[in-house]
């Protein structure tokens, strides 16, 4: 499905190409103080706070005869607006509104394309009066921004989102997540059985193992194919890592490098299996490793290895589970499995859960679904009013996957207490079946560009 399109329009030298370059993340369009540098339509793939769309840089709109060069440029601009999902009409806040801006506004009102008004070069006090003047153009409150310095992009995101977000009824799974090999890293303390586990999965002695702790130094990646319960072949990239001891015990330079390499492997992975030694239970170092994995935004599974020789298995399992719930409060319910690398017990379950966990980690939820849930959540538990000032939460949207990341927009939402943020995150987990994968929720309270003018 093609990306939605934004056409940037405005008179010459208001900063259209500067904004285009910022949105596409490259200097594709020439930028100069001389007006009229852009002539043809230039298109690029843009990303704004996780929102993907096609952006079109157009020539400065000039009221000239269609036979002239400026006139032919204007025809290209008109075609770009006609084909776009939304027109981003830019004015120069420092220069204020000029007659050509008003002419463009009259023409845009006659088209069927929705319009978002942006007042560029609004940084500092010099742009405040131009922002106020722009309201007279009839497109509502302008987005005050600085294309050169990147200010105001969050407000631009808010303004463009209603025209660009596709509201599908069902959650989507990232196509890359379902087809690409699962990047699965095995981490843990020394001698937990990481290399033995991978050898058992591969069905061969691919990695050196032994009773000595610390045999593995480099992170080793091995491509493998797992056959699921239906016989389907699933590609996997297994990553073995060096054992991670307490930092105070890591003295040798080589071991320090090995631990750093293991941490880089976590960054590379999609799902991380923290392997515990079932004969020793859970230790503080295990919780530190788990916390690091979650902080990096990776999906986590915890596996109790050597289960075939563990004593008092039932009480051990319940004790580890209780300790995890207490020690990993930010992600309660992390899958806890029992396996035996020596016998192969539980490894098929481990792989099935790993793929299911990646699916949840890669899940995208439509804005429509999110906000239907959000309305119910607000009705059930309205936001508090710290200091007697009402917090108005307007809407929430997902800005990225892997891990699922959301932005909550509204007035003073940055003042929401941590307890209410946890209430929303836990609700997201339950409603959309994210399980225990990391879920990010950012509060975005747009600043009023006129606050300084009122002081």
Task: Give an overview in words.
GTPase that plays an essential role in the late steps of ribosome biogenesis. By secondary structure, this protein is of the alpha/beta class. It folds into 3 domains: 5-164, P-loop containing nucleotide triphosphate hydrolases (Rossmann fold); 175-363, P-loop containing nucleotide triphosphate hydrolases (Rossmann fold); 365-446, GMP Synthetase, Chain A, domain 3 (2-Layer Sandwich), CATH 3.30.300. 35% of the residues lie in helices and 22% in strands. The protein has helices at residues 16-24, 69-83, 99-109, 128-134, 153-164, 175-179, 194-202, 253-268, 284-295, 313-327, 347-361, 367-380, 418-432, 451-454, and strands at residues 5-9, 42-48, 51-57, 86-92, 115-120, 143-144, 172-173, 182-187, 220-227, 233-240, 271-277, 299-305, 336-338, 363-364, 392-400, 405-411, 440-444. The strands form 4 sheets. A 6-stranded mixed beta sheet has the order 2-3-1-4-5-6. A 6-stranded mixed beta sheet has the order 9-10-8-11-12-13, sandwiched between helices. α12 crosses α13.
Brief digest:
By secondary structure, this protein is an alpha/beta fold. Helix content is 35%, strand content 22%. Helix 3 links the parallel strand 4 and strand 5.
What descriptive keywords fit this protein?
455 residues; alpha/beta; Rossmann fold; GMP Synthetase, Chain A, domain 3; 6-stranded mixed β-sheet; 17 strands; 35% helix; 22% strand; elongated; G_ENGA; GTPase Der
